[in-house]
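call fold(seq) -> tokens
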Amino acid sequence: MFDLNSYLARIGLQGRPSIAQVHRAHNTTIPFENLDSHMGVEVSLAEEDLQRKMVEQRRGGYCFEQNLLLKAALEALGAEVDVFLARVRWRANGAIRPRGHVVLRVRDGANEWHADVGFGRGAIVEPIPFGPGAEHEQDGWRFRVVEDGPEYVLQTLDEGEWADVYAFPPHPVPTIDLETANWWVSTNPASPFVTGLIFSIVDPQGKRTSLSDWGELALTEQTPDATTVTPVAREEIPGLLAERFGLPGFALDGEGRVVRGEGQ
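ret:
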């Protein structure tokens, strides 16, 4: 059974918060990270494993883990939640990527919401109405959903122009499809979640901080008005994980890969 009280304590809430309050608190508390797939550890989507990892052990996770944990919490609060698989388009430069991202539709009475706490480098901070419609501004970031044939596309304003973030057909998928996509993302030798590292978190004011070696290893800090990129030496990673992302207890092995520290 999902332990709602422990989850709410993890994200700094209590009682019966709204969907928007839960979404924002989750986004600003639980970091996006791919350490398990990078270290060759199986990424489980079982509800009890998600709760153990991200609530009890105070770890983070990537989109499958993050959004399925949010799904369990919102269902415990009485909402109905559907799951969709999306294809990331963000800076794809024409490449067709696999459907490797998870998006939620949350029904709360007569309202339907587009929810997503697992995009990593930052998408919506709070849920937005589901489906194509008006523009939405959150902490200075701007979003909208448009139609592209049979798909819905989340877009964000990037350097003055609307850019695709991801696209998905608005048809819920069964658990087996999630398990299959998760297995591919977390084990395929060509997957950047296996070969590389990415961490991110958004603060309560909407500032995005990410650390990644998908290219030059760097710490990136973004607001709607400015981006600062700071190159990082590999030996700085464990300290940055602890200080900036709330992920202590990691070290580097002799080849420079992140591993659990002694005693962890």
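The domain at 4-188 is CATH 3.30.2140.20 (Arylamine N-acetyltransferase fold).
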